[in-house]
Design a protein that fits this description.
Elements (H helix, E strand, L loop, with lengths): L36 H16 L10 H14 L1 H32 L2 H15 L7 H8 L3 H25 L3 H9 L4 H35 L8 H10 L3 H29 L9
């Protein structure tokens, strides 16, 4: 008889580890039109206060007043004409500001000598309020369109330059060493390393720059202007037309909100490879 015949092998039971519930730390799933929730709540709050009489129409007219006034201004042709001129000023200033900001950021961010020369001057100017430049801009460039566009471009320049410059200086040095090892040309280095590395910073600066262009537009269109939304608002203020002033205010808000939404959509498309909390 085998010596091992009486031995019984007991089955080994493996205890399953306790399943630890997954802790959700993300902000949640993004909604397609979730960005409209805040403005919708603001409009609802404004409507309720106007209907109940808590908001004096002499202080702030009701939302439907802005709609009816805007329709009347469109029929007269004033709204679309002033809107076209204001949009042209803002976009022209934005274009010049972006071009100059990116160019100087490249010169300053990719060269230590350029950084010593350019970045110091930019930081000095950064401490001077944009409003303090208006008298000098008028003295140098006059009161016409050149001064207005230059002031808008100046306001756009700083956020574009600073964010792009910081992104360039934050490029990993190992990527630069790898590019030197594989002997990339200057153009290949710019295309494969510099552009992908600086794109997130540039788009952040562009978002701030778009907002800055509309804010500067509000200022310049109240300086001896004869057209534009700011001129329309200033003229309405002189005649105490609060409904027209409200239309101008709502237009500025919609233009800023819409421009920022366009840049954010562009950012999602160009940076689709990044996984962030907002995705």
């Amino acid at each position: 008889m085998n010596a091992y015949s009486d031995l019984r092998v007991e089955p080994i039971t493996v205890q399953k580890p306790r399943s630890v519930p997954k802790q959700r730390l993300s902000p949640g799933k993004p909604a397609r039109y979730g960005i409209l929730l805040g403005p919708a709540l603001l409009l609802l709050y404004w409507t309720v206060l106007s209907v109940t009489g808590w908001l004096d129409p002499r202080i702030l007219p009701a939302p439907w007043t802005a709609i009816t006034t805007a329709i009347e201004l469109i029929r007269e042709g004033r709204l679309q004409e002033n809107l076209a001129i204001s949009t042209w000023r803002a976009m022209t200033g934005l274009g010049f500001g972006v071009i100059v900001g990116v160019t100087l950021a490249l010169l300053s961010g990719l060269s230590l000598l350029g950084g010593y020369v350019i970045d110091g001057l930019v930081q000095i100017k950064r401490g001077i309020p944009i409003l303090a430049l208006i008298p000098f801009m008028i003295l140098w460039l006059g009161i016409g369109e050149t001064m207005k566009i230059t002031l808008i471009a100046t306001a756009v320049f700083f956020p574009v330059y600073i964010n792009t410059h910081n992104a360039l200086r934050a490029i990993d040095l190992r990527h630069v060493e790898l590019a030197e090892t594989v002997r990339l040309t200057r153009w290949q280095f710019l295309r494969s390393v510099v552009v992908p590395g600086s794109l997130p910073g540039f788009l952040t600066g562009l978002r701030f720059g778009v907002t800055a262009s509309w804010l500067a537009l509000v200022v310049v269109e109240q300086l001896n202007a004869t057209s534009g939304i700011g001129y329309m608002v200033t003229l309405a203020r002189n005649y105490a037309q609060t409904d027209v002033m409200l239309v101008g205010l709502v237009l500025y808000a919609l233009l800023g909100f819409g421009s920022d939404a366009i840049v954010k959509q562009l950012e999602r498309g160009l940076l689709s490879w990044r996984k962030t909390l907002g995705r």
